[in-house]
Amino acid sequence: MSNEATVHPGTDQPAGPANIASFIDHTLLKPEASEADVLKVCAEAAEYGFKSVCVNPIWVKTVTTALKGSGVLACSVVGFPLGATPTDVKSFEARGAVLDGADEVDMVINIAAARAGDKGALVEDIAAVAETVHAGGAILKVIIETALLTDEQKVLACQAAVEAGADFVKTSTGFNGGGATVQDVALMRRTVGPDLGVKASGGVRSLADAQAMIAAGATRIGASSGIAIVKGEQGSAAY
User: Fold this and answer.
1) 46: Cβ–Cβ under 8 A, 6 or more apart, which residues?
2) Which residues partner with 108 through β-bridges?
3) Mean pLDDT taken over the chain
4) Burial, 231: exposed, middle or buried (Cβ in 10 Å; 0-12, 13-18, 19+)?
5) Does pLDDT of 41 surpass 90?
6) Which listed residue (154, 170, 184, 209) is catalytic?
7) Given 25, 106, 184, 209, which residue is catalytic?
8) Mean pLDDT of the region 163-188
9) What pLDDT does residue 145 have?
10) Is 106 a catalytic residue?
11) Is 141 a catalytic residue?
12) What is the 3-state secondary structure (H, E, C) of the chain?
């Protein structure tokens, strides 16, 4: 169900300032974010033409209303940022986000299962959320939290996401140390093949950073430095 058709990952020319915004999920996931902060991000997304606005579940209704008619998607996170939530709770949270208007859901995997090499548990966790999200007409991105995994575990998590019917794999939450690297994006792209989306998030702060991720195979960029990226400046936000 991936809607990433802008470039064929890793093969076309890197996105430039004119079209980089269409790759970016403009992100605000700080727990202290206010309604005014969320509305500001929505206004920025509409102005610059970002792909989506990604927020915590309590703000999905606000974002959906603010973005109506803008062409910018609403995105919510689930099981965030630890992933250490029972599967049925993740599914319930995802259903609520979709009912509130989320076009996309970014879920955190069971990281302990990935570290234990338990592919079955990963597939079960992801598949349940994927079924819920797809039933509501939305797409599912699966955050594997690369900073906490070995390369072997990253591959296992990506394979589980493919098997479970996810639409994307995503590098990081930005809350558990580390972030996206070109090496991890390339590894994830090799693992999932050409058809699944790959989202690079965490530490992408400049146009050069974003272009490097896209060249490595990313079809989406998660960033709170989206405006700096579009303007060719250096962002400072951690995510």
Assistant:
1) 67, 70, 72
2) 143
3) 93
4) middle
5) yes
6) 170
7) 106
8) 95
9) 98
10) yes
11) no
12) CCCCCCCCCCCCCCCCCCCHHHHEEEEECCCCCCHHHHHHHHHHHHHHCCCEEEECHHHHHHHHHHHCCCCCEEEEEECCCCCCCCHHHHHHHHHHHHHCCCCEEEEECCHHHHHHCCHHHHHHHHHHHHHHHHHCCCEEEEECCHHHCCHHHHHHHHHHHHHHCCCEEECCCCCCCCCCCHHHHHHHHHHHCCCCEEEEECCCCCHHHHHHHHHHCCCEEEECCHHHHHHCCCCCCCC
Which entry of 90, 154, 199, 209 is annotated as an active-site residue? 199
* pLDDT of 105: 98
- Residue 154 is a catalytic residue: no
For the chain, how long is the longest CA-to-CA vector?
45
pLDDT band for position 237 (cuts 50, 70, 90): low
The residue type of 177 is G
What's the pTM value of the predicted model, to 2 decimals?
0.92
